[in-house]
Design brief:
Largest sheet: 6 strands, mixed
Distance between the termini: 14 Å
Number of domains: 2
CATH architecture of the largest domain: Sandwich
CATH class of the largest domain: Mainly Beta
Order of helices and strands: HHEEEEEEEEEHEE
Strand order of the largest sheet: 1-4-10-6-7-8
Oligomer: single chain
Radius of gyration: 18 Å
Shape: globular
Structural class: alpha+beta
Strand content: 35-45%
């Protein structure tokens, strides 16, 4: 099936281009390479990316200010005043329903204007698996990949495990690449690789979690681009 799909794309792409259709090269490569994420470099705007509609979630924007590949990226702007508390998240989400559990999640992120207002301020990628009978009695189970900002679990969840890709320090002003082995990490943290599931939700976030009022204002702009979920 993969060989047939690649062959069809190789045949169709030149014909579509000759017909004057606007085809983004990155998206074409994603289709050929088996990327489960649609519009993975945000070259086609917002869809199908979304955010959660809750009081502590902030929306994202597609911007041409920075890009790791192509022209656009997703900008997550985290802001809070010094008297704020609890949790605040700026993020972008996509859900997929493949037949097999993907083995790799990769992409690039960039941090600008990081002002730490609380100790638990960090950047992370979350992979949530729904509908897996092995996760019962929990509604889902997940791995939270901390890309940077903290080096200890900022929160405790009975259905979540943490993997620390980076430490508490953060690199600003340049693109940072991450490449995650989902099979190895779920096996290591949960004891198995999911086999049966209804959907997978992938979240790219910058956030803070503060039980007390934060010491100073929180400010951070985090950009995500050139994302991949697949084999």
């Amino acid at each position: 099936m993969d060989l047939l799909r690649r062959h069809l794309w190789m045949v169709l792409l030149p014909a579509l281009a000759a017909a004057g259709c606007a085809i983004d090269r990155q998206e074409a490569r994603s289709a050929v390479s088996g990327n489960l994420l649609e519009n993975a470099s945000f070259e086609q705007g917002r869809a199908p990316w979304f955010v959660l509609v809750t009081p502590n979630w902030e929306d994202f924007e597609v911007t041409d200010q920075y890009a790791a590949h192509g022209r656009y990226s997703a900008r997550l702007a985290l802001r809070a005043e010094g008297s704020a508390r609890s949790t605040k998240i700026a993020g972008v989400i996509q859900e997929v329903s493949p037949r097999e559990f993907p083995g790799r999640l990769s992409g690039s992120y960039r941090i600008e204007g990081w002002t730490r207002g609380t100790a638990k301020q960090y950047v992370q990628v979350v992979v949530i698996v729904f509908g897996d009978p092995s996760a019962k009695p929990y509604p889902n189970h997940q791995v939270r990949y901390v890309l940077g900002g903290v080096d200890k679990p900022p929160l405790r969840f009975i259905n979540a495990r943490y993997s620390f890709v980076g430490g508490s320090e953060l690199q600003q002003g340049g693109w940072v690449r991450f490449d995650l082995d989902l099979h190895a990490d779920f096996q290591r943290l949960w004891g198995y690789v999911p086999k049966e599931f209804s959907k997978i939700r992938v979240l790219f976030e910058v956030r803070y979690d503060a039980k007390k009022a934060i010491e100073t204002g929180v400010s951070a702009d985090v950009y995500f681009d050139n994302l991949y979920l697949g084999k």
